[in-house]
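Per your request, structure below.
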């Protein structure tokens, strides 16, 4: 592991009540007695960077934790773009081959949900940076930590506590939500959910599903169906040469088995059963070929099978052109106790609409996945559930700071996010009790398509992130408006994002004499028919990547925006339009995926901004 340098080191655990426990590290020893609740904790004096050391915990038994380094520890959190693996990133393959650094360490917090603060994470362990460990780790967190290592030359540890598809309220304590009038509707919605949904969030539930007689349906309606798998031979082999398999690691309280008899009282059926909670992911999948290569199923219109039991499921196709989670799939299908025929036509499958926009390719399918749920389907997760299960257990562990990449899930309520994000940051800082430690945000990149002069959820969410960085102490902002992808919620250019987070940390937390931010809006002056925009962080000067600055719009009292002409003058940009004689407001890069090109000469992009505060698309959404 890596322990935080320069601060008192907390070591804690459990033992028999009244048991004496002694903790030793790097020549320092502290002793304590376990309390009546079987808990003990000691605090060791601050240590300088170095190691490796041995951490010894001695009570009725002795535990030795070897190869302990002292350096800086950062928490990386957020949703899918933070969990996005290095292996999928641009340049990831080349970087993985070089990822051998014994003084860079990773810890991944397993998924979990809780309704009260947990004393520990689900069991997990630290990993030393190697090609095998790095390839599946967060690309953004890896590049961030790599750059810190290169600049600081001390051990660096990263604790990844993130979950794809999550919203910020799941990472925020309920008390913080209830105490803010803008955020109270979030808690109120949860309070009004169905009792069975709240019960599932706290305890989970059972499911038991049986499947049998899978058949591929030819496009020719007169041709007979082709057997895909019926399990009657007692195996999970499929007719195309692959096999069905089950992932227990993501749903450890479940099992997959072939049970007899199957449908119509003969052969076998495939059964998936057990206990699921909100953190479980029960995925039963068929590879079409044993080597996971694509198969051509363009001669078929779909697939038919039989199912019975207690629960529900989603059927997904897998194709090599889609490398995130937005596979072509059905809606949630509910199961009855009696055998029921299910016909799924490929033409009816849809993407969820938040990932890569790719056409369905029946000639390039690699397999099918059946994702199993309880009878509740995929119920909403509770606010604070991830905070209590995946952040609270970390808060005895001293850290240097946090990097945060999230916001996509909150774009429909972007105005509310300008209160939610600061509330979450305050909540975390209060939990860690380490003061206003650095909290570095990734501003959402360009993604999607909005009208040129219309409202934009994404622009409003970026503004909420910008305002949080400007109004909350020691909060940084890595602008990424130039590294996204209009049709991909998970853009693969992650190295620039990690680098920009590291620049902000090096220039602020570590006091390096560098320009660490792109231009940030600082104010405006109306000068007749023009508006002059002033910026912070102009570095060696403003620059447009192109002939002239693009992405500026301007409006008068009628609040109608027009494309503006912009020119750089020193550390300002002067904006005007022949259609607006008396301007009062300017916007820059205001859209889902705007065309914009303003940077400083250090190559860091300007943050999108607006000078007005007129109600936008999400102003009334709570």
């Amino acid at each position: 592991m890596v322990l935080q340098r320069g601060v008192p080191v907390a070591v804690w655990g459990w033992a028999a009540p009244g048991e004496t426990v002694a903790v030793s590290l790097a020549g320092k020893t502290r002793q304590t007695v376990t309390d009546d609740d079987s808990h003990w904790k000691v605090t060791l004096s601050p240590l300088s960077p170095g190691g490796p050391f041995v951490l010894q915990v001695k009570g009725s038994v002795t535990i030795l934790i070897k190869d302990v380094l002292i350096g800086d520890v950062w928490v990386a959190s957020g949703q899918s773009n933070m969990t996005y693996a290095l292996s999928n990133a641009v340049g990831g393959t080349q970087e993985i081959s070089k990822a051998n650094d014994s003084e860079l360490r990773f810890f991944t917090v397993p998924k979990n949900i809780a309704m009260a603060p947990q004393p520990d994470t689900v069991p997990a362990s630290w990993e030393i940076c190697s090609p095998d460990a790095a390839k599946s780790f967060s690309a953004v967190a890896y590049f961030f930590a790599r750059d810190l290592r290169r600049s600081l030359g001390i051990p660096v540890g990263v604790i990844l506590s993130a979950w794809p598809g999550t919203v910020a309220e799941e990472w925020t304590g309920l008390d913080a939500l209830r105490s803010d009038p803008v955020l109270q509707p979030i808690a109120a919605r949860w309070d009004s959910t169905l009792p069975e949904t709240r019960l599932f969030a706290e305890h989970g539930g059972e499911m038991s599903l049986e499947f049998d007689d899978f058949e591929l349906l030819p496009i020719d309606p007169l041709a007979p169906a082709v057997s895909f798998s019926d399990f009657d031979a007692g195996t999970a082999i499929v007719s195309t040469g692959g096999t069905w398999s089950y992932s227990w690691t993501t749903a450890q309280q479940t099992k997959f088995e072939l049970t007899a008899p199957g449908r119509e009282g003969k052969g076998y059926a495939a059964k998936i059963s057990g206990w699921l909670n909100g953190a479980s992911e029960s995925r039963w999948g068929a590879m079409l070929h044993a080597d996971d290569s694509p198969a051509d199923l363009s001669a078929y219109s779909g697939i038919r099978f039989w199912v019975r039991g207690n629960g529900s499921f989603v059927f997904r196709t897998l194709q090599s052109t889609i490398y995130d989670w937005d596979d072509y799939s059905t809606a949630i299908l509910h199961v009855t106790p009696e055998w029921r025929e299910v016909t799924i036509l490929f033409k009816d499958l849809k993407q969820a609409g938040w990932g890569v926009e790719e056409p369905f390719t029946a000639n390039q399918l690699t397999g099918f996945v059946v994702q199993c749920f309880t009878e509740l389907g995929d119920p909403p997760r509770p606010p604070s559930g991830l905070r209590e299960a995946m952040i609270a257990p970390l808060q005895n562990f001293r850290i240097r700071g946090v990097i945060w990449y999230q916001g996509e899930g909150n774009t429909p309520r972007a105005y509310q996010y300008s209160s939610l994000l600061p509330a979450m940051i305050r909540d975390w800082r209060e939990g860690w009790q380490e003061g206003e430690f650095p909290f570095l945000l990734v501003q959402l990149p360009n993604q999607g398509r909005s009208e040129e002069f219309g409202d934009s959820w994404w622009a409003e969410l970026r503004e909420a992130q910008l305002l949080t960085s400007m109004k909350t102490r020691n909060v940084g902002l890595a602008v990424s408006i130039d590294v996204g992808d209009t049709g991909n919620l998970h853009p693969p250019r992650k190295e620039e994002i990690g680098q920009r987070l590291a620049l902000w940390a090096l220039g602020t937390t570590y006091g390096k004499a560098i320009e660490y931010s792109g231009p940030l809006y600082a104010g405006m002056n109306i000068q007749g028919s023009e508006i002059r925009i002033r910026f912070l962080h102009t570095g060696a000067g403003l620059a447009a990547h192109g002939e002239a600055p693009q992405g500026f719009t301007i409006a008068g009292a009628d609040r109608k925006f027009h494309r503006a002409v912009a020119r750089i003058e020193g550390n300002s940009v002067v904006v005007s339009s022949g259609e607006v004689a008396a301007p009062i407001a300017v916007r820059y890069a205001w859209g889902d995926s705007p065309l914009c090109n303003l940077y400083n000469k250090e190559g860091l992009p300007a943050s999108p901004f607006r000078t007005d505060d007129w109600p936008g698309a999400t102003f009334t959404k709570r």
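The chain has a mean pLDDT of 96.

Regards,
D.
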